[in-house]
Amino acid sequence: MAYVKGFSLYNLILFAIFILSFIVLNEFLLSSSMIVGESTMEGKKRSTSTKIPNLHEVLQFIPHDVVHTWSVRDYLIVLGIPSMDIDIRRRRRQLQRSTCWKYPNVATKANNFAGSLLVLYALGRHPSNAFLFSSALKEEAKEWYDVLTLSVNDALPTTSKTIGVAGHWGLEAEVGMSRKTFVWFELSLYIFPHVYYIAKGDDDMFMRVPQFLADLYTLPRRGLYWGSFVRWESPRKKVKDKIYYAAGSCMILARDVVEEFVSYKPLQEIVHLPYQPEHVKKFLSLNMNHEDMMVGRVLRDARYNSLVVARDKQCRFHNLHSGIPVRAVTKNSLIVHHLLESDYGMLMKRFGNDTNPSPYRYKRIGHGLIMFACK
């Protein structure tokens, strides 16, 4: 075989292939950087987030070693619960911590955050505390290491709705909840770069964690949008607009679905706007008057082809005292919503020993639909 300056012809060919591959890859990356953040299907409808979350403020009450532990743990799912810096909500958080978050496999301070499910509370600044985080919140956060403090201002309710009862808090308060939901999903992508699923829940619900995890392990890792689905139709007769969305008491999204949601440019453009009369029409255009409707609308309008809707039954996701549907607690109950303070302990007493359940049956219908069944 011929040699040229110490190289065989074979080595020269390999070197040429390497150089050519490098040039092609470089051209690809360069062209990709020019279109990054835009979907080929929706054009400018989808873009990567341009607003980097202020992690210093968000994690100000979480020790650095805890944040590091979160980053190296192999969590299956993180659940964010938007809540408020007021005593009545603080009691609800404590009731969840002392009942359903005591199940095995829930990552808490007590077990050095080891488990499959990590639960965090996402709080904004409340007007009753002059839009400052209260001393009670600071003590709570230091005790549990599960409180994220968002750069979001809460609003006082303008209706007679109370905790644990169905209804509407008033438009400004509901827009604030939608904003916190968006911020939670956006933050979770930064804080947990490897988690498979990201969920949003409420502080007036109870979760049967062992059954929830047993079911989740059987579901797709990509494209998942799981929950109890509700249909909304526009009240305006001349407007034909219909949305199916997972109820906000507990909605579970795969990581790629969260990325699709927070990347939706029309939502990015309005979600951080201050609540003012001239912005109300924009908020309503994406159903920001209900955080769960907002998520459903964005996922519908984004037309994400990989979406897999997992529709659960009302025997499993249900309300206890008010709302639709109201059901009695049965062996099928998985997510029980609109609780009284006395209900958390009752539910834990009933289901607390059920720590090794079998997954529920479901039927796969084509690529994009999963239907659960009741036992």
Poorly predicted ranges? 1-7, 21-44
Name the average pLDDT.
Answer: 87
- Give the % helix: 25-40%
The total domain count is 1
Structural class category: alpha/beta
- Residues in β-strands, percent: 15-25%
Number of strands: 17
Distance between the termini: 73 Å
Given the C-alpha coordinates, what overall shape results?
A: globular
Radius of gyration: 23 Å
CATH architecture: Alpha-Beta Complex
CATH domain fold name: Spore Coat Polysaccharide Biosynthesis Protein SpsA, Chain A
Tally the helices. 12
Largest sheet: 10 strands, mixed
Describe this structure in a few short sentences.
The protein is α/β, with parallel strands linked by helices and 375 residues long.
Q: How would you describe what is shown here?
A:
It is a single chain. The chain is α/β, with parallel strands linked by helices and 375 residues long. It has a single domain (55-372), classed as Spore Coat Polysaccharide Biosynthesis Protein SpsA, Chain A. The strands form four sheets. Strands 3, 4, 5, 6, 7, 9, 12, 13, 16 and 17 form a ten-stranded mixed beta sheet that branches. Strands 8-15-14 form a three-stranded mixed beta sheet, with no helix packed on it. Strands 1-2 form a two-stranded antiparallel sheet. Helix 6 (171-191) packs across helix 8 (255-262). The protein starts with a strand and ends with a strand. Strand 1 and strand 2 (7-8) form a beta hairpin. The chain is globular. The chain has twelve helices and 17 strands. The protein has helices at residues 9-35, 55-58, 64-72, 87-97, 135-144, 171-191, 209-216, 255-262, 265-270, 280-285, 291-302, 343-351, and strands at 3-4, 7-8, 77-83, 106-107, 117-125, 147-153, 197-201, 205-207, 224-227, 229-233, 242-246, 250-254, 308-311, 317-319, 335-337, 362-365, 369-372. The model is unreliable at 1-7 and 21-44 (pLDDT under 50).
